[in-house]
């Protein structure tokens, strides 16, 4: 759950360096970017690549902790795809890291197929 991931991040962080936590909860939409109807999607991901990318981002200046959960299998509209939690010192540290991390996960880690 999102609450558990946030608690895990707080426990893994030094309180004096924790100023912001951002959460992304990706959900299966009923339509693709092109407007095509989506009823389900098949989702998988590369665990090793995910570990590698998270490790890279955790070492950035001002980042305290990162937790990522990604769903697998056949998902229906409304199901959670992934949850990404990034914690850090300042907004200027966390926001760009958060955005780039989600983009990298979507491009390099997640394998999805929309089923219409």
Note down, in words, how this protein is organized.
- The protein starts with a helix and ends with a strand.
- Helix 2 packs antiparallel against helix 3.
- It has three helices and six strands, in the order H-E-E-H-E-E-E-H-E.
- A three-stranded antiparallel β-sheet has the order 1-5-3, sandwiched between helices. It has a three-stranded antiparallel β-sheet with strand order 4-2-6.
- Helices cover 36% and strands 35% of the residues.
- By secondary structure, the protein is α+β, with helices and mostly antiparallel strands.
Summary, kept brief:
With 116 residues, this protein is an alpha+beta fold. It contains three helices and six strands; from the N terminus they run αββαβββαβ. The strands form two sheets. Strands 1-5-3 form a three-stranded antiparallel beta sheet, with helices on both faces.
Keywords:
3 helices, three-stranded antiparallel sheet, 116 residues, single chain
List the topology elements.
Elements: H1 2-12, E1 20-27, E2 40-45, H2 47-58, E3 63-70, E4 73-76, E5 80-88, H3 91-109, E6 110-115
Helix pairs in contact: 2-3
Q: Whole-number average pLDDT?
A: 94
Strand order of the largest sheet: 1-5-3
Q: Spans with pLDDT under 50 lasting ≥5 residues?
A: none
Determine the oligomeric state from the structure.
Answer: single chain
- The counted number of beta strands is 6
**Rg from alpha-carbon coordinates:** 15 Å
Question: What is the first-to-last residue Cα distance?
Answer: 28 Å
| Number of helices, where a helix is a run of at least 4 consecutive DSSP H or I residues | 3
Largest sheet: 3 strands, antiparallel
Morphology call: elongated
Q: What structural class do you assign from the helix and strand content? A: alpha+beta
The helicity comes to 25-40%
Strand share of the residues?
35-45%
Series of H and E elements: HEEHEEEHE
């Amino acid at each position: 759950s999102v609450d558990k991931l946030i608690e895990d991040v707080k426990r893994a962080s030094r309180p004096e360096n924790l100023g912001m936590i951002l959460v992304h909860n990706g959900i299966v939409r009923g339509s693709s970017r092109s407007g095509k109807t989506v009823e389900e999607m098949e989702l998988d991901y590369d665990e090793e690549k995910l570990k590698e990318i998270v490790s890279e981002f955790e070492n950035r200046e001002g980042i305290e902790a990162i937790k990522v959960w990604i769903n697998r299998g056949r998902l229906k509209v409304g199901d959670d795809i992934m949850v990404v939690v990034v914690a850090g010192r300042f907004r200027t540290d966390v926001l760009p890291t958060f955005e780039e991390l989600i983009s990298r996960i979507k491009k390099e880690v997640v394998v999805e197929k929309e089923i219409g």
